[in-house]
Amino acid sequence: MKPRVVIVGGGAAGMAAALRLESRGVEPVIVEREEVTGGKVRNWHKLFPTFTPAEEVLEPLCRGIVERGIECRTGVSVEAVSADGVVLAGGERVEADAVVVATGFTLFDAHRKQEYGYGIYDNVVTSADLEQMMNRGSVRLADGSAPRRIAILHCVGSRDEKVCQSHCSKVCCITGVKQAIELKKMFPEADVFNFYMDIRMFGPGYEELYREAQQSYNIHFVRGRISEASPTINGRIQIKAEDTLTGRPLKMSIDMLVLLVGMRANDDNASLAASAGLALAPNGFMQNKDPFTGAVRSQREGIFYAGAVTAPKSLADTLAEASMAADAVVDYLNADRR
Amino acid sequence: MRNIKFGYGISKPRAIDIDSNDLRKSNEILREMPELQTCIGCGSCTASCTAGNLTQFNFRRVHTLVRRGEYMGAYEEMNKCMLCGKCRLVCPRGINTRGLAMLIKRKLGDF
Predict the structure, then answer these.
(1) pTM of structure
(2) Shortest CB distance from B48 goes to which of A155, A227, A250?
(3) Nearest C-alpha neighbor of A57 from the set A333, A314, A266
(4) Under CATH, which architecture does the B24-107 domain have?
(5) Chain A touched by B79 (CB under 8 Å)
(6) Distances (CA, A) of B65 to B26, B81, B88
(7) What is the pLDDT of residues A187-235, one digit of tens each?
(8) Is the complex ipTM higher than 0.85?
(9) Considering the domain A110-263, what is its CATH architecture?
(10) B99 inside 8 A of chain A by CB
(11) B94 touches chain A (CB under 8 A)
């Protein structure tokens, strides 16, 4: 009989891990809280730094799950995990020989940075909202017109003790560059300004895209954090920052403010950790066993991690880690039966 | 001999010279307020500064210069601060910037 592995979370990490496990002779079972699998990536339009449609990455995963007949329990959340199975909401127990936790992350709620006026003024949107607007093909101001001046603010809900999110969310910088280019392609007449603290272009092709944004798209980069946004008398948004490279306060009126919201730890990480004796990192993400040799392992034998549940990660890193996690599970199962 | 003025002078070097700057006061300030080391230079303090919007006062610039041992004029600059504390409300590193303004004045009255 094939060994059985429960995967908690049916996003990109969970599905990629399931496919890899299935091809290595294991029977995976995906448990997904939402009604459909696909996770956050379902809401993304195009992926950095290549502008690959998110669907091109997600569709083969979803199709693979269906074609190979992998069991998916959707619309049900997991209350507790252990090395030999999980307990679903309602008390049902699903037995397994190992468990992979791939529950990802939560988007920072931009309402909490009230000074930026999200949910208060028109035309203040998050990076996630913008992806969905692009998916619908409806990037427009509230009055239906095209924006002439757009500001993109980095580090919203990242590197900010005021909202208890001290970590860097890693992917926002490159997302800001990507979205600036997309906006500029949509509205060639518009001026796009990115307000940044540090530009962290860590991945292959990222720095090149940043340069392209400056060189080919004339996107402006201002080093300074926007301190507040307020409405103007004619319905635009006024923002204030320090232009730290000239050392002077700066203010400008814009039509649209895009907040690059960070990745924060899921609220239920703590209860999940408590149920299984797992450890949390100081920022609330799950703590893996070791950053070098145990990246996909937990403190408990038989419980593994894949994707952004342990730290903010790009989709590329998440997919790579899903394979790693599946291989680690197979090694564990083989050692167990030897 | 007559002193002929050719219109040339010797300019002082502009560089911040860490070798010749006396960092003792800077270190004292950092010892009393270690969180100042965590500044990421985002400029939120200056952007929200009441005084900085009306005068040349740039809080981020002054406290960065102080950390480098450039104390000249720091006390007089800090006198422009109205201690309203808005900078402290916005600092993403949780630095007690209002306390820092007072600390700099206390430590650097002689410069």
Answers:
(1) 0.92
(2) A227
(3) A314
(4) Orthogonal Bundle (1.10)
(5) no
(6) 9, 16, 19
(7) 999 999 999 999 999 999 999 999 999 999 999 999 999 999 999 999 9
(8) no
(9) 3-Layer(bba) Sandwich (3.50)
(10) no
(11) yes
